Each structure stands twice: as C-alpha cells, then as structure tokens.
Amino acid sequence: MQIRFAGYAGDCRVSATLELTMDRLTDALNAADTILLRDAVLESLDDGRRVALDRVELARDALYAVEATGPSGDRRRRVRTVRHRMHVQLGPYGVLGELHVRPGMAPLRSLVRRGPMVPLTNATIAYISGGQLQMHDAGTLLVNSALADWIVAPEREAACFPGVRTIPIPA
Fold it and tell me: How many domains, in total, are found in the chain?
C-alpha cells in the first residue's frame, strides 16, 4: 500500500510516497534502518529551497520525526492506556504530544522499551524555516527518541534516559 510520507530531517522537511509493507508506519520505521521514498520533495529549513527527487533512500537515524499516515493497525490488538503530556526537543524541532502508556508504567520507562520511533498523539511540531516560526499539528507524530536532545519529564524518571538531559517537572 502506498501512503503519503511527511518527515522532518535535520536540515529539511521531506514529502514523498512510501510503499508501506507492514500494518503500521511505526512498525515499518522501527524494523528498518533505511526507507525508500518515491516522488520526494525536500524543503530546506534554511531558505525554503525545494529539491525534487524521483527516489531517495533515507536512514531512519536522519529523521527526527515523521507524521503518521496510513492504517493504525488492528483494533483488536489495542490495549488500555493512560496519556501523558510530553515535551521533546529533537535537533531543530520542538514537539508537544501525548505518550500513551499502560496504566502504572512510568512514561519515560515505556519510551526506552519501544523502538526508536515512538508515537505521540495530539501532537504539535515547531521549527524555524526561512527565519520564520512554523508550527504544524498532527493527529500522531512519530518521534525518534534516539535523537532526543532533552525531554520534559518527572524527575524520578530522568534515569531512564542516560545521556539525555531531562528538565524536571513536579510529579
């Protein structure tokens, strides 16, 4: 199945078509080190310049975030979760969204138990493009937790992300 792809790399935004070979985009991104995109347009964050490519292969580690599109998976496999508001800084991108975790599990601890691409729902991504602040709302944004610069989180959870600065908030 072909889906619309919208990604955020270190120096550009990427719009393209992706052949989805798994049930969910999150699973496909976590399973592969690289992804092949077709009919891609790369838009520079620096000056807005656009480059069109018939095909481009991107390393997952080059993507800070990806807007979730396509199917959301089998509804029968869903479990009850609790939503936790998160604020994550990923390179040039600031992201606010809700992390869904099983009841009783610490939000940051659940992040380290998942693959690198983690869904945040009711998300907003903010960045500077062409010298102007841009903000985009997404139903679900997949953030690359391996590239997090800092995370606003309860202090007791900071140890879950060694090497990533956490900004403590009251529990």
Answer: 2
Same domain, 103 and 53: no
- Specify whether 20 is located in the same domain as 100: no
pLDDT at 166: 62
pLDDT band at 74 (very low <50, low <70, confident <90, very high): low
- Could you count the other beta carbons within 10 Å of the beta carbon of residue 77? 7
pTM over 0.90: no
Q: Could you read off the pLDDT of 108-141 as tens digits, one per residue?
A: 677 677 789 999 999 999 999 999 999 999 999 9
DSSP states of 87-127 as a string?
Answer: EEEETTEEEEEEEEE-TTS-HHHHHHTS-SEEEEEEEEEEE
Alpha carbon separation from 152 to 76, 91, 106, 156 (Å, rounded): 32, 15, 13, 12
Q: Are residue 49 and residue 120 in the same domain, yes or no?
A: no
Same domain membership, residue 25 and residue 89: no
Task: Find the domain containing 49 and state its range.
Answer: 2-67
